[in-house]
Design brief:
This protein has about 325 residues and is of the alpha+beta class. It contains 7 helices and 17 strands. The chain has 4 domains: about 90 residues, 2-Layer Sandwich (Herpes Virus-1); about 80 residues, Zinc/RING finger domain, C3HC4 (zinc finger) (Herpes Virus-1, 2-Layer Sandwich), CATH 3.30.40; about 55 residues, no CATH class; about 45 residues, no CATH class. It starts with 12 loop residues before the first strand and ends in an 11-residue tail after the last strand. This is RBR-type E3 ubiquitin transferase. It is an enzyme of class 2 (transferase).
């Protein structure tokens, strides 16, 4: 009796396309399918070596990687299965490493080109160094074109826009103030260069020389625009100056006289009164106080009533 059997032999094995290791299909935990789902890698180490070859050791080339056997492109999911969440950071770092760089000639440190400031002479410096260089010069009132030049030794002036957008706003305000102070306008006949002397004011303008007074639009300080003294309409600047000097001398002489005499200014009404005789307790007899205000002649303190006790400090 003859028997016939149909036998199908299935070799349940896989071969790693990287190291050619042969292993059983049922041992699924030990191998990694490529995107094509036909070819496998036996371990994570083989997968990483495979990726390095496919990307030429540059992970940013991952889109060009493919299976050695069937040339099926590898998708992003495959790379994420190997590297996990770190894959995104690897791509970011790889892109950053490709960015062009330069070395700052001041601090001798390497930076990305986008972190530099390029001067008109084409010399590049890091933002921190050029900022420090500019602010140091400006704080020392060095604001002329020959002062703010390329630190490399080039005599090319730094562009005003680079100065404005590199330094701190308050330093740029100082730069503008120094620039205004050093500016010398070309005046025509009948013009004067007016600088306001108001508190913390740096306003400057060209005015006609026939004005007797002017109010600064910035600080509201009023003065004679020609001599910067208080307005003196009807008098020349020379006559006003002489009058002021004479009055200052008179005030000085008067104060000396008061100091060396029995005269004293009442602390209540500020009128000058004289002590003829008696103790240091005084009643002011001016038209303002009318004998109703009291003070101590020695220490000039105002008192609530006559002979009020107080701590006399001479």
């Amino acid at each position: 009796m003859n028997y016939e059997f149909d036998i199908e032999i299935n070799f349940s094995q896989e071969v790693c396309i990287m190291c050619f290791k042969v292993f059983k299909k049922q041992d699924i935990r030990n191998f990694i399918y490529l995107t094509c789902n036909k070819h496998v890698l036996c371990s994570k180490d083989c997968a990483i070596e495979f990726i390095n070859i496919c990307t030429e050791n540059d992970i940013s080339n991952w889109k060009y990687a493919q299976c050695f056997k069937c040339f099926t492109p590898l998708n992003k999911k495959f790379f994420e299965s190997i590297y996990g969440p770190a894959f995104s950071e690897m791509l970011k770092k790889a892109e950053e490493d490709k960015e062009p760089k330069f070395t700052c000639d001041i601090c001798i440190t390497e930076y990305k080109i986008k972190e530099c400031i390029t001067l008109p002479c084409d010399h590049r410096f890091c933002k921190t160094c050029i900022k420090t260089y500019l602010e140091t010069n400006i704080n020392e009132a060095k604001i002329l074109d020959e002062d703010l030049v390329c630190p490399q030794g080039d005599k090319t002036p730094v562009d005003i826009n680079i100065i404005k957008y590199t330094i701190e706003p308050e330093i740029f305000q100082k730069y503008e103030r120094f620039a205004i102070e050093r500016w010398t306008p070309q005046l025509e006949n009948g013009e004067i260069d007016f600088h306001c002397k108001g508190t913390d004011c740096n306003f400057r303008i060209i005015l006609e020389d026939n004005l007797d007074d002017y109010e600064c639009p910035k600080c509201k300080h009023k003065c004679c625009p020609k001599c910067n003294e208080e307005p003196h309409k009807g008098n020349t600047c020379e006559a006003f100056k002489k009058w002021k000097e004479e009055n200052e001398q008179a005030d000085e002489k008067f104060n000396t006289l008061v100091k060396n005499s029995q005269w004293v200014a009442c602390p209540w009404c500020k009128q000058i009164i004289e002590r003829i005789t008696g103790c240091q307790y005084m009643a002011c007899t001016s038209m303002v106080c009318r004998g109703k205000k009291f003070f101590c002649f020695d220490c000039k303190q105002g008192l609530e009533y006559d002979h009020a006790p107080h701590r006399c400090i001479r």
